[in-house]
Write a structure and sequence with these properties.
Blueprint lengths: L3 H15 L2 H13 L3 E10 L4 E13 L12 E23 L9 E4 L5 H8 L9 E10 L3 H9 L10 H29 L7 E23 L2 E6 L2 E5 L2 E2 L4 E2 L3 E6 L3 H12 L3 H5 L2 H9 L13
Parallel strand pairs: 3-6, 5-8, 6-11
Antiparallel strand pairs: 1-2, 2-3, 3-5, 4-6, 6-7, 8-11, 9-10
């Protein structure tokens, strides 16, 4: 017969199983195995409410990989930064409505002031459509009312947030966290300018991508013969479009990925954002010359403006 302490332990263990901790941990492990540095509960400022919040994960990786450079060199590289929300909602369906992808939305990119956006976009970052991601214009969230499914979910130690705004809230969270990451990189640029000689590497530009990893049912909705058909999909992109007094976020995409397809998605990221790493690797002398034109000693970020 279980002791009182055993019952208490089992109770709290079930509570942890029902939280998002398990999904976050699984996503974190996949990111690390794919070469990303990962921070959990990454803090950001919600400018709308002037509150500190956090997004589940923040991941970053260098382009090209640092292992490609010779030892004792100061590489000039790019960086991909991912702000990530994880949602484990096994009896929820996220439904995305198809749209034509015109490809006009640009990536969120910030460059060092000495490196022009024109050069980055022409030489170092592809502007092709992101392959194999279903393109959506809008979305909906539905919850299964099947009591048998609900019972099985509870037996498996899983629960759902019984509301239909989880996707909307996740999009808002990663969008605001992404803006915070961009603002932070803007300040980081100033330190690189002032301390170029001491820096182990120079990040000439950073690409920012919002990502939601979903453990649930992901569908594309399509009108066929005057009827709506749902088809399971592994991943989808939707234009980032959040506007308020403090935010004007209408560049780039939010990516939504089924956890079961996360490995495939990370492979797509690698194929897409790293496809021009050789151009960066072979342009080191030119980039050193471009960056070297900045008067590094003329600015001290610790001095008041």
């Amino acid at each position: 017969m279980a002791s009182k302490e055993d019952k208490i332990l089992e109770f709290f263990q079930n509570q942890i199983r029902q939280s998002g901790y398990k999904l976050q941990t699984k996503v974190q492990r996949k990111l690390i195995s794919s070469g990303y540095e990962v921070i959990r509960e990454w803090p950001y400022l919600d400018k709308d409410e002037l509150k500190g919040r956090s997004t589940d994960l923040f991941a970053s990786a260098f382009i090209p990989d640092l292992s490609l450079f010779e030892v004792n060199t100061k590489p000039i590289i790019a960086q991909l930064q991912l702000t990530i929300e994880c949602k484990s909602l096994p009896d929820h369906a996220w439904i995305f409505f198809e749209d034509v992808d015109n490809g006009f939305l640009l990536h969120d990119i910030i460059t060092l002031d000495s490196v022009s956006m024109m050069k980055v976009s022409q030489d170092f970052v592809t502007m092709d459509l992101f392959p194999q991601l279903h393109h959506a214009s809008s979305y909906d969230e539905l919850i299964s009312s099947d009591k048998r499914n609900e019972g099985r979910s509870q037996q498996a130690g899983s629960r759902s947030n019984k509301k239909d705004k989880n996707l909307y809230e996740a999009i808002c969270s990663v969008t605001k966290a992404n803006r915070h990451a961009m603002d932070k990189f803007q300040k980081y640029k100033e330190f690189m300018v002032a301390y170029k000689n001491q820096a182990p590497r120079i990040v000439m530009f950073a690409i920012f991508q919002t990502l939601i990893v979903f453990e649930g049912h992901l569908y594309a909705a399509k009108l066929e013969n005057d009827d709506i058909k749902l088809n399971p999909i592994p991943y989808v992109k939707i234009p980032k479009n959040y506007v308020s007094d403090k935010y004007q976020e209408n560049f780039g995409y939010v990516h939504v990925v089924s956890f079961d397809s996360l490995d495939g998605y990370l492979g797509l990221l690698r194929d897409y954002y790293w496809q021009r790493e050789d151009a960066i690797l072979h342009s080191q002398e030119e980039l050193n010359d471009i960056i070297g034109r900045v008067k590094w000693s003329s600015y001290d970020p610790f001095m008041p403006k």
